[in-house]
Amino acid sequence: MESPGSVSRCPVRQQRARWERKRVCTARELLETERRYQEQLGLVATYFLGILKAKGTLRPPERQTLFGTWERIYAASLELLPYLEEGHWGPGLEGFCSHLELYTQFAANAESAQTTLQKLLKKNKRFRRFVQLQEGRPEFKGLQLQDLLPLPLQRLQQYENLIVALAENTVPNSPDYQQLTRAARRVSEAAQRVHAIGQSQKNDQHLLRVQALLSGRKAKGLTSGRWFLRQGWLLVVPPTGEPRPRMFFLFSDVLLMAKPRPPLYLLKSGTFVCKALYPMSQCQLNRVFGHSGGTCGGLLSLSFPDEKLLLMSTDHEELSRWYDSLAVAIRSQKS
């Protein structure tokens, strides 16, 4: 017969005890945060959505754009919480996964929601007064509507962290192990889809900003369908003469060199004229000097079939970031 001391020293039992402690802590955190999440979802559903519907302050299309799938996400939380409170983690979370598409739809609408909110606050006096009144309620604890709108996307990231941790700390012979493992996988996949949507929306904003900086007939449609990586000033070193500062915009497939418009173009002040486009699929990149740091900057060589660019910067760290970004673009095109 094993003594209590030998049992307590058994590595397998110790590991299972650690798993169980982590599982209990994770389950408690998931439950407590779900209660708070549901409370905040309910505040928006009651004091914003419900009253806006009743008063008709906003037209239905505006209301739909502003809140997206909020009410259905709230209903999904109402359905999930009783399972968590009763400790039925596996069935509750696996059932919740059927609602994950609501979060993907919410993410796809997130940018439009924030744009619509700012537009309504600026142009609709009645709506602006309503929002200020509701935000002043003690239940909101100083939070503004624009702070609450991203809540479901923030919660999805929490779901991924907590549900994955719950699955990882559940022993394989547990009755809900398979359900938790499936739920963790599906939540992680949904979080990845939402992250990709967010990255795409940020890229679209960058492209719009860059397109606005470019003027002239050659600039039309230059950024369409591209993935923005970096922009900044670099010195172009010619075969003879002094280095010339140029603005560079790096995309996933091309490097765009631009020159600032002269001050005489008052209507185009602050914009740039596209001077050249260099395909990254044909680029050979080398660091001429500036490998080892220091304060003297560095020089990059970019070779193309018909031209060779020498780009210089007096900031070594900035040049290193350019080198890394250019290398990423080249690899992505050649792969």
UniProtKB/TrEMBL annotation:
Family matches, as PROSITE patterns: DH_2 (PS50010), PH_DOMAIN (PS50003)
Domain DH: 22-197
GO molecular function: guanyl-nucleotide exchange factor activity
GO biological process: positive regulation of cell migration
UniProt xrefs under SUPFAM superfamilies: DBL homology domain (DH-domain), PH domain-like
GO cellular component: plasma membrane
Ranges where the PH domain occurs: 227-331
SMART domains: PH, RhoGEF
Annotated PANTHER family: RHO GUANINE NUCLEOTIDE EXCHANGE FACTOR 39 (PTHR47056)
Name under which the protein is recorded: Rho guanine nucleotide exchange factor 39 isoform X3
Lineage: Eukaryota, Metazoa, Chordata, Craniata, Vertebrata
